[in-house]
């Protein structure tokens, strides 16, 4: 029984999670320099939770994410998306930009 459980856990570990970001709206097209993917939460994987997280993002003139506003998505997936956004970097610009991003979590 223990071997069967370990085998199932190994298979779950091998399942890859697919991540996709689409830009729903942007004031100007700013190139993304660093775009680390969110980590698919273990609990979401165990629950077979999939979905889309929509976030409004304000990018400062320095290229760093200055502010975020969640528009929709499951709270477990929202947390993962927001953590990833902390490390996103865009090219510099003369002014701030406002974007709406969609993160699609599916296995």
Assigned CATH class: Alpha Beta
Number of strands: 6
Main beta sheet: strand number and arrangement?
4 strands, antiparallel
Shape: elongated
Cα Rg: 16 Å
CA(first)-CA(last) distance = 26 Å
Structural class: alpha+beta
Structure, described:
The longest helix is centred in the N-terminal third of the chain and has 13 residues, at about 1-15. The strands form two sheets. The chain has a four-stranded antiparallel β-sheet, covered by helices on one side. A two-stranded antiparallel ribbon has the order 2-5. It contains three helices and six strands; from the N terminus they run H-E-E-H-E-E-H-E-E. The chain has one domain (about 15-105): TonB (TolA/TonB C-terminal domain, 2-Layer Sandwich). The two termini are about 25 Å apart. The protein has helices at about 1-15, 40-45, 75-85, and strands spanning about 20-25, 30-35, 50-60, 65-70, 90, 95-105. With about 110 residues, the protein is an alpha+beta fold. Strand 3 and strand 4 form a beta hairpin.
Short description:
This protein is of the alpha+beta class.
Which features characterize this protein?
single chain, 107 residues, alpha+beta, TolA/TonB C-terminal domain, 4-stranded antiparallel sheet, two-stranded antiparallel sheet, elongated, disordered N terminus
Mind sketching the topology for me?
Blueprint: H1 2-14, E1 18-26, E2 32-34, H2 42-46, E3 51-59, E4 65-72, H3 75-85, E5 89-90, E6 97-106
Antiparallel strand pairs: 1-6, 2-5, 3-4, 3-6
């Amino acid at each position: 029984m223990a071997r069967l459980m370990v085998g199932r856990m190994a298979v779950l570990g091998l399942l890859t999670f697919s991540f996709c970001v689409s830009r729903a709206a942007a004031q100007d097209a700013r190139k993304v320099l660093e775009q680390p993917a969110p980590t698919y939460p273990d609990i979401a994987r165990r629950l077979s939770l999939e979905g889309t997280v929509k976030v409004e993002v304000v990018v400062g003139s320095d290229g760093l994410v200055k502010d975020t506003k969640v528009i929709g998505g499951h709270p477990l997936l929202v947390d993962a998306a927001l953590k990833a956004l902390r490390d996103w970097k865009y090219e510099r610009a003369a002014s701030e930009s406002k974007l709406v991003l969609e993160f699609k979590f599916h296995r």
